[in-house]
Design goal:
Blueprint: H1 4-10, H2 18-27, H3 34-47, H4 51-62, H5 67-77, H6 88-102, H7 110-118, H8 124-137, H9 143-151, H10 158-171, H11 177-186, H12 195-208, H13 213-222, H14 228-239, H15 246-252, H16 259-273, H17 275-283, H18 289-303
Helix pairs in contact: 2-4, 3-4, 3-5, 4-6, 5-6, 6-8, 7-8, 8-10, 9-10, 10-12, 11-12, 12-14, 13-14, 14-16, 15-16, 16-17, 16-18, 17-18
Length: 305
């Protein structure tokens, strides 16, 4: 039976700086089998109060992904057996736990992650980390709750909405298409305040990569959006899509007023149709001097030598 007090003493948990403690933990691994190492990590995560040590052990335990550790990580995320405080150290530890939990790809963790995400009194960093974790786990049962977050007019954090939207793109379930399209259509009157969210919705729809005419409509509208970044995201989404109209739609952005949009359109078309678009831009007077230089730069970098 493991003597945890002796092990913690040997590692200098109470006497050494956190970095030294973590080095000692790594060095003693050769004296214990895998199950014993997991027990030691779990004991530290449950009983030690130093947040730097705890964060280090979360990282060490991540390579083993033991089911018993997963339950401990969830307890920390939910503040079970931990004193509640608003310190940055505890918040960062819980964020780290959410990331570690996502690496298990275990659907049984959805409840805990959704609980924190939907708790509007929770620190926003925790909520962002939980939204990201849900996306990385990739379970379709998280789609509807994530959509509810994006649609919630009472949600004060635009960053939480953005993270939930990004998570939907990571999950890649087609059931997210109609709600995301509906959000874009419904919010047209107030979108000037939420350009970042528009970017994330266009990006999420692009990640879904499904040949859907409603999605194409969103991309077409986004190409004339007031935000250059929304237009750039639409170009990238179209480039990676299977829409037959994609090249011609992207071509319109070669005449955009923003040079970065022009650049992205040119690169996208080069990826789709190759050298011909570069020669066209260089030879025809309708294109800007800036765009002609960009075309020459691409030829020098990728076509010559």
């Amino acid at each position: 039976m493991l003597n945890f007090s002796e092990i913690l003493n040997d590692c200098g948990v109470e006497s050494e700086p956190p970095d030294e403690v973590l080095k000692n933990l790594v060095s003693i691994e050769e004296f214990y089998n895998s199950d014993e190492i997991v027990e030691i990590y779990n004991y530290i995560l449950t009983n030690v109060k130093n947040y730097d040590i705890l964060s280090g052990v979360v990282k060490l335990s991540d390579s083993r992904k033991a089911s018993s550790t997963l339950s401990v990580l969830i307890d920390i995320l939910l503040l079970k057996n931990k004193e509640q405080d608003d310190s940055d150290e505890l918040i960062n530890l819980r964020v780290l736990c959410a990331k570690a939990i996502s690496n298990y790809k275990d659907a049984s963790t959805l409840g805990a992650l959704l609980y924190c995400l939907n708790n509007k009194n929770e620190n926003y960093k925790i909520r962002l980390a939980c939204a990201d974790a849900l996306g990385r786990i990739g379970d379709k049962y998280a789609v509807e709750p994530l959509i509810d977050v994006v649609k919630d007019d009472n949600e004060k954090s635009i960053y939480v909405k953005e993270s939930a939207t990004f998570a939907l793109g990571l999950i890649g379930d087609s059931s997210a298409i109609d709600p995301l399209v509906a959000i874009m259509d419904a919010k047209q009157g107030i979108w000037d305040k939420f350009s970042f969210l528009k970017e994330k919705i266009v990006e999420a729809l692009g990640r879904l990569n499904i040949n859907n005419r409603k999605v194409l409509h969103v991309f077409k509208n986004s190409l004339i959006d007031a935000s250059p970044m929304v237009r750039i995201n639409a170009i990238e989404a179209l480039m990676n899509s299977e829409f037959e109209e994609a090249p011609e739609l992207i071509r319109t952005a070669l005449q955009d007023s923003d040079e970065e949009v022009q650049r992205n359109a040119l690169i996208a078309l080069y990826n789709i149709i190759g050298r011909d678009i570069l020669d066209e831009v260089i030879s025809l007077p309708v294109y800007s001097k800036f765009l002609k230089e960009e075309a020459k730069n691409i030829i020098e970098e990728y076509e010559e030598g």
